[in-house]
UniProtKB/TrEMBL annotation:
Organism name: Glaciimonas soli
InterPro entries: DUF1214, DUF1214_C_sf, DUF1254, DUF1254_sf
Superkingdom of this protein's organism: Bacteria
Protein name per its UniProtKB record: DUF1214 domain-containing protein
Boundaries of every DUF1254 domain copy: 87-196
Residues annotated as domain DUF1214: 349-455
Pfam family, one: DUF1254
Amino acid sequence: MTSTLEDKLVSGKIDTRIGSITLEKGLPAGAGDSKKLFDELDFQRACQTYLWALPIVSFAEWQHQHENVFGAKDGQLVIYDNYRDKLGILTANATTPYIMAFANLLRTGPLVIDFPAGPMAGGVGDFWQRSVTDMGETGPDRGQGAKYLLVGPGQKVTQTEGFQVVQMPMNNIMFGVRSLEPDPQKSKALIAKLAIYPFSEREKPSTAQLLSPAGKSWNQGQPRGLAYWERLNSILQVEPVEARDRMMMAMLIPLGIEKGKPFSPDNRQKELLQQGAEVGELMAMNFSFNKRFEGAKYRPDANWVYVLEMKDPNQEDENNTQLDQRTAWFYEAVTASKGMMSRVAGLGQAYLGSYHDQHGNWFDGAKTYKLRVPPNQPAKQFWSLTVYDTRTRCLIDNKQGIGDKSSRMPELEKNADGSVDLYVGPTAISGHEQNWIPSIPGRAWFAYFRLYAPTEAYLDSSWPLPNIELIEDAK
């Protein structure tokens, strides 16, 4: 018969997963047992708050990189239009250019985004990576362009005629957009029409230079170790606390992070925070690469999964915040919007991920794999296969600077039936060099299959996408 807790309390000792706890009169017997329990409590809190904080730390780090590596000011646009400059972005696509800006509305006041008409997709999010509004094809302007006015907490604007007013829930904002124009010159001209400026300068807005990473080494992924908590503390100090986050904020207090107070953890707290960051990241990694969500598979006949499991860009379900779903996504990716979750044929984007070969093994950079993309690909605009390094969750950093293959590449070889055979491996298979993505021996990788403006055959899962298969006799 299994003994009850009452029996154990009487016995004078309880064997737990953290070791034996000695009892005296039914209570922890001494300082050593008390410390063991407090250390475990605070370690668990560090792990859980690590998972909770992933989205806000990611954006805070990206803003830090913009300001300190690129020299960008509030609202200044940075363009990522080549492979090298995109290497610092979590699971970036390698096909379209990104244009990004961060701003602190406390410093700028209400901010105007002059969004041009044309084939662009983007929007504005807060630092919890919640989409506040889409812009462009899936936004209120429906691709016709508009002037969006971002108003921060506590800010007031009366003269709003001619503006799409967007009330921001946080002081720090992220603006991001992708040009979907396939012609490079037209795309460049479209991007040049974008403008961001304070509302107070609306009569004569200044023109800021469009910045580029210019090949600099950088990374917007969440920093590791104590730096993770330093970045978290810095952003929490300047943002309002929402009702949904008050319990997590309470968990941080014994770890040395409290709003309105300096972050100066003692040695015990530092050790627990570092341990929590390590185990927390392993938990996040497991969420991402071993998805356990019900209905995660695209189809039962292959191991492709929906990587964006959140059903709402605000990360809320009927009775809970989608903590696990946002952990899985924001560990390996950035931003979420209505367009990225579109279930309307011909609008938005779709994302499928693959982390294992046909045998259930991780993809090995020393081996060669093949994906046959079936004909009649369900994408109104284009599709792409992109490969990422599992350690960085960024584009694979091979010497060729090749991390994807897409239907926009005229050199892509196609089969007679319209299918396409793609290869990932350390060396190209003779005769298929145009369809090859180079991998790196000693490094694992995973893949995203993107569909831009997905059609009904994707939405109803009638279009098959087979496994990425290990080629045993690759030459």
